[in-house]
Amino acid sequence: MAKRKDLFEKVRESLTAQEKRLALEKERLAKESLAARPEIGSIPSAEFVEQATEGLSQERLAVEQGILEKLLMETRLALSKFKIGKYGICENCGKPIDRSRLKVYPQARYDLDCEKTLSLKRGA
Ligand SMILES: [Zn+2]
């Protein structure tokens, strides 16, 4: 049991660091997306077109922001579970989530069995 606790300490630390990193990255992307947005009603200049092809496109930025947002949400959710002592417990069946699974995916909300069942249901 002591080993499980050790792992949790590490996971908690890395999740805290990740949360900070993701929040910063989100801010950076938000600024970038603002900078990439052309003025409404303006005719795109040759200079702008050149920038647009060089830099990240608006769609690409939106996709990245979406992924980041989701990761940040999952990370914060996992951290909040530490606070209430529910970290590493499957949200569906209440069983402890496999340690090896938590190592690879510390934000996991379900154990492997439930994840499979739930994703099958979602896919149907
Ligand atoms: Zn489960």
TrEMBL record:
Pfam families: zf-dskA_traR. InterPro entries: Znf_DskA_TraR. The keyword Transport does not apply. SUPFAM superfamilies: Glucocorticoid receptor-like (DNA-binding domain). GO terms for molecular function: zinc ion binding. Keywords: Metal-binding, Zinc, Zinc-finger. Residues 85-114 form the Zinc finger DksA/TraR C4-type domain. A zinc finger (dksA C4-type) spans 90-114. PANTHER family: GENERAL STRESS PROTEIN 16O, RNA POLYMERASE-BINDING TRANSCRIPTION FACTOR DKSA-RELATED. This is Zinc finger DksA/TraR C4-type domain-containing protein. It comes from candidate division WWE3 bacterium RBG_19FT_COMBO_53_11.
